[in-house]
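Bit of a strange request maybe. I'm writing a small parser for structure token strings and I need a real example to test against, not something I typed by hand. Could someone generate the tokens for this chain?
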Amino acid sequence: MKSVEAGCLEIAYEELGSEVGEPVILLHGFPYDVRAYDAVGAILAREGYRCIVPYLRGFGPTRFLSASTMRSGQQAALGADLLALMDALSVGTAVLGGYDWGGRAACIVAALWPERVRGLVSCGQGYNIQNISEACIPAPAIEEARYWYMYYFNTQRGATGLLQNRRDLCRHLWSLWSPTWPYDDATWNETAQSFDNPDFVEIVLHSYRHRFGGIAGDPTYDEIEAQLAERLDIAVPSIVLQGRDDGVDPPVDDDFDRAHFAGRYERRIVSGAGHNLPQEAPDAFAAAVIELANVRMA
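Reply from user aminoacidic:
Good idea to test on real output. This should exercise your parser:
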């Protein structure tokens, strides 16, 4: 375990592989942590890559440097954290890989600072940048039902539930989102301790309230949010991986995200995997990273 001051955070991270290898930054989602990349990191380390796997704000040992900093979970904060981490570690360019919240951070950096990104592996929603201006436009009922937890977190009952029952609630989400993943108690317990971070609840609640326009963001990130509202295309080489069994963002026949990618792009549906794709299908994820790293090295 390592840590580094980056922006407003002391970011805890794990590092595998060669210190002089091609940098790869792997970003987890909610409610997961760095354990999602144990197998992926091992594969990439054997191939000589330098794998950096940070705990996002509000997870595990990552901490804010100041008690006065707003505990924001908004998308711009996640993207800014990733860029600050790259700067703090003197990583000029890297292949970025992520899913859920981590995929959003990776997409934001790829869209706004493409000169820092050699390639992007994004899971689930490929173009994972929130369109907050249209967040209150309802989706078909079958989709709305899958988002129950978002609406729950926008209520006081949900806030209390997350505070008091965070492990029960998060484990339920694991089971719903990855219905064919046979994880065991040991796997769950290794990750669940990351939810004991003192800022976990506040950041999760802010994330799911801000995306619907129900709560203000941190003014520090207003400029980034304004840029994201323009729905910028992602021009770096990208591979989108979608788990066929994803219980929250199941793949559909039409690739609606394709229009937001201006460069080399491919979507792959991964059988036998759900929402936590790197942990469920590490070979597929690692292969995508390696392919993108080789594209621009050739």
